[in-house]
Amino acid sequence: LRVVVLISGGGSNLRALLEATRDAEYPAHVVAVGADREAEGLAHAEAFGIPAFTVPYSSFPSREAWGDELLATIAEWQPDLVVLSGLMRLLPPAVVEALAPRLINTHPAYLPEFPGAHGVRDALAAGVAQTGASVIVVDTGVDTGPILAQERVPVLPDDTEHSLHERIKPVERRLLIDVVRGIADGSIGLGAASTP
Ligand code: GRF
Predict the structure, then answer these.
(1) pLDDT tens-digit profile, the chain (196 residues)
(2) Do you find a cis peptide bond into 56, omega within 30 degrees of 0?
């Protein structure tokens, strides 16, 4: 299964997926890594010898223009699946519609609880005893797509946003690796196939 991963930040989830693909038995491989800015996480692609590209959001006059360039760049790699793993940017509907349902996202909360860009902070502020991690199919909403996998993660009394996020990420990584494997081996169906 040909996978393109999109990031914005440190890419620790990307690194975990890249490490999983080192196993010859793992039925997916990352063909390229993209970012909407000069993301630190692109260094993981370089370390694994995987092509990386940036489509800098700030270089475009609109979200739609950025999205069109991003979609064209992604299409060059002919992916079977696009993974958003720490992409901190909403994709324009045209991009989602072109890629879905072969477009998934990891989110550091137990959706539909705490969607959006600050799921960890919001869970902490809400004072809940547990939050979670989720992997979903991206739709044109914000973290509203079909849930492919999710797992609860406890919130501890002295948690900070960072400590809670660091407890969530390992769960996210495991779910992501399992979901990508499931999509590759057919045990997870994504609904009607679409061609990017
Ligand atoms: C992950 O928790 C992801 O779900 C969220 O931002 C974090 C990115 O972490 N959107 P990293 O860049 O993979 O380290």
Answers:
(1) 999 999 999 999 999 999 999 999 999 999 999 999 999 999 999 999 999 999 999 999 999 999 999 999 999 999 999 999 999 999 999 999 999 999 999 999 999 999 999 999 999 999 999 999 999 999 999 999 999 999 999 999 999 999 999 999 999 999 999 999 999 999 999 975 444 4
(2) no
**Residue-wise DSSP of 65-80:** HHHHHHHHHHHHT--S
Instruction: Give the C-alpha distances (Å, rounded to integers) separating 144 from 9, 44, 80, 169.
Output: 22, 29, 22, 20
Annotated ligand binding at 11? The verdict is: yes
Q: Which of 29, 107, 118, 165 is catalytic?
A: 107
Which of 33, 83, 169, 174 is the best mutation target for the ligand 1 pocket, counting ligand atoms within 8 Å of the beta carbon and taking the most?
169
Burial of 96 (0-12, 13-18, 19+ CB in 10 A): buried
